[in-house]
Design goal:
six-stranded mixed beta sheet; 6 strands; globular; alpha/beta; single chain; Uracil-DNA Glycosylase, subunit E; 229 residues
């Protein structure tokens, strides 16, 4: 194991033990205690989620937060939910993922030259963290980005992730343009250390309505690969 990989693993253990936000702790545990019928009897992770992927990643994908019955259940971000189904299929088509599905931490998925993280690490009620909960969690994203020294591109899935990346970059002393760059699908901004690319989030709200299509997401990841992956 490389030193960077060891440091990321140590950070992952620290993240998983976090209990800073009482509302989120209560919500993630409530979701685990009262699962929907389709997950009845399953053991839930019900802790904060660290990022995962290739420690030598050239591309970092940042989402909003785990899903209450997705990552909060499986123990891996975007794993076991519809958003992840759409995301990993695209990552497989564009050469970043070894397979097109992700259902559990032991399913054999390997990410190549890509790392997946999030602004918030606990499932929030209504998918809406408070500003204080976001700020309490940003330190983890900043520390992951510091350790992912080979990263040259960040793909932000949704406006919340876009804003979170900009805030984390500012905390790291990375110059952020003013006025704040506006989010949009396919928007790009040079943050000196990284190229930030925006994409609509692969939520069912976006994919079922056609706001985000497979070719649209594939194009973002092909561009990310060309820039730094």
């Amino acid at each position: 194991m490389t030193e960077r990989a060891a440091q990321l693993r140590a950070l992952a253990s620290e993240i998983a033990a976090c209990r800073r936000c009482p509302r989120l702790v209560a919500w993630r545990e409530e979701a685990a205690a009262h699962p929907p019928a389709r997950f009845a009897g399953q053991s839930y992770w019900a802790r904060p989620l660290p990022g995962f992927g290739d420690p030598a990643a050239g591309v970092v994908v940042v989402g909003l937060a785990p899903a209450a019955h997705g990552g909060n259940r499986t123990g891996r971000i975007f794993t076991g939910d519809r958003s992840g189904d759409f995301l990993f299929a695209s990552l497989h088509r564009t050469g970043f993922a070894s397979q097109a599905t992700s259902v559990s931490t032991g399913d054999g998925l390997v990410l190549r030259r890509l790392y997946i993280s999030a602004v918030n690490r606990c499932a929030p009620p209504g998918n809406q963290p408070t500003p204080g909960e976001r700020d309490a969690c940003l330190v983890f994203l900043a520390r992951e980005l510091e350790l992912l020294a080979a990263a040259r591109v960040i793909v932000a899935l949704g406006s919340y992730a876009w804003d979170g990346v900009l805030l984390a970059a500012g905390r790291m002393g990375v110059p952020v343009p003013r006025p704040k760059p506006r989010f949009g699908h396919g928007a790009e901004v040079d943050l000196v250390r990284w190229r930030l690319i925006g994409s609509f989030h692969p939520s069912q709200q976006n994919t079922f309505t056609g706001k985000l299509t497979e070719p649209m997401l594939d194009e973002v990841f092909r561009r990310a690969r060309a820039r730094g992956g």
